[in-house]
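Handout for the seminar on molecular recognition.
Each group receives one record of this type.
Step one: identify the two inputs.
Step two: read the structure output and locate the region that could contact NAP.
Step three: write two sentences on what you found, then compare them with the reference statements printed after the record.
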Amino acid sequence: MVKIAIAGGAGGVGQEIVDALVATKKHEIILLSRRDAPSDSGSIPEGATWIKVDYASVEQLTQVLQGVHTVLSFVTESTGEGSPVQFNLIDASVKAGVKRFAPSEWASSGFTHMGWYAFKEATRQCLKDLNKDKKVLEYTLFHPGYFVNYLTCPYPSMKYIPFAELPWDLNNRRWIGIEGGENARISLTTVNDVRNVVVQAIEFEGEWPVDGGIRGDDISMGEFLAIAEKVRGGQPFTVENREAQEFEAGTWATSWTPAFEHPAIPREKRASMAKVITGGMLLAVNANQLHVSDSWNKLLPDYQFTSVDDFLTEAWSEFPV
Ligand SMILES: NC(=O)c1ccc[n+]([C@@H]2O[C@H](COP(=O)([O-])OP(=O)(O)OC[C@H]3O[C@@H](n4cnc5c(N)ncnc54)[C@H](OP(=O)(O)O)[C@@H]3O)[C@@H](O)[C@H]2O)c1
């Protein structure tokens, strides 16, 4: 049994992980939030305690983290320089004697073409600098690629994470891609596998690896499209490929653009962000930034991951044709 602090634990991904950790009934869980605890105590998972924090105060964070073994961060800092919230969390973790830290990664191995992930890059650098001369804080960068669950949109397959439309639209059998990008590789992992890996990582007795790739499945974009078409009845999709240069210049045009409804993006900015994020995502995949290592797969050799094909075949067998 260890005490785990979950920063941003009331967000979409955080709640998925809290749910899994609470279900083990093994750990003491504290949820860190900038907000007051909800008046409806039923919305706080049983076995977890909500603590309102001021991320600007290292002193307060240090107090809150007393006795904490592991900090898992899910905060999304979308603006500004660096990653002030996570810098302070790291500082406070060290001061409070926290043993393990996982920053708010949970996605790609690299960040090229994804400016909205600048805060993650800054946090990586902060942790690297911290351990430059000697190990001050054990940490892992959990990255599972994209959650394959998004590919069931608009039919729900996640409990807490809201859908964001992707350029790969199985429901409407349409696909946006990069000309000649069929061999780029993408890692896709189910949310359930990420939940299970984190539960096992908490109990893992060895040292956490810095490179925390979680590879549910790893396929080429060509294979990905073939699986998508197969699970949608074998009918060919309408594929709109554009040149990488058009995505880089922002001049690309297709008959549709995925809508982004992520709560971290203000409503009035979502339409303009949709094109930027779609283009950035496709370029990132093309540059293999979503291709992650199998670091945690190797450390947990008995764990069976769900393939993209198996997950999507089963999920789409239950949805309307
Ligand atoms: N691999 C994938 O496919 C995938 C998909 C989605 C997300 N992710 C990653 O998973 C992580 C969590 O994402 P999410 O979608 O769960 O995020 P989210 O729901 O938007 O936010 C998580 C929490 O962060 C806190 N937060 C937001 N802005 C903050 C700020 N400026 N300062 C401090 N705290 C702030 C909020 O908590 P309070 O308001 O309670 O303080 C919020 O509930 C991110 O790193 C994201 O990139 C990966």
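Reference statements: The chain has a mean pLDDT of 95. Residues 8, 10-14, 33-35, 55, 74-77, 85, 104, 106-107, 144, 146-147, 161, 263-264 surround NAP (CB under 6 Å).
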